[in-house]
Specification:
Shape: globular
Strand content: 35-45%
Mean pLDDT: 85
Radius of gyration: 20 Å
Number of strands: 15
Distance between the termini: 45 Å
Largest sheet: 15 strands, mixed
Oligomer: single chain
Order of helices and strands: HHEEEEEEEEEEEEEEEH
Low-confidence stretches: 4-31
Structural class: mainly beta
Number of helices: 3
Helix content: 10-25%
Length: about 200
Amino acid sequence: MTNYLPWCFRACLECVQGPSFTEAAYYRRMKNEPAVALDVNKTGSDVIILKEGERICGTGSALCTAPLVQNKSYWQVDIQQTGTWCIGVATSECALNQVPPGTAFWGINEKGEVVSNGQVVTKIDKPIEEGDSIGLTYDHIELRFYLNGSALGDGISGIRGKIFPAIFVDDSAILDVKFTEFTQPAPNDFSEILLEQTIL
């Protein structure tokens, strides 16, 4: 009975304020899992999501688990293996099996073409290669791109609707998405994607 009381007290305290004395395994897993990731339920039928929602390969598109609701969002994509790819934002109406994505998608592809709703609007001069990191910022006015920390020309404006970070891959491309712990720092005033309930 005397051994039971300290355990009972600790269990009640941890229930109220979290495991401050000892961290249970389930709590460590929950705390370490990224709050934002690629959504396995919002992918094309031939898309493969690995590394707890941070790596994409196969063929097709995937949306992120969280829409972009904050004022200034930043995320990063690392090119692990070249192929055909597009990264940017899309609405939930985007055709996730279409190769490459068409309407309801805005982003940049492996050729450096900036695509808005299925149309190429401009092209950047710098080549994008295996091992490069592409940063993306969105402030509800403009989607902008950064190559290894340097801004890439003009962004895309006029994006409408509830949008999500989106990635398309094909032809053996493998991309890693970073929603936290960036290797390239976010531009001033931009931060990692927040969940809607975090902002409220």
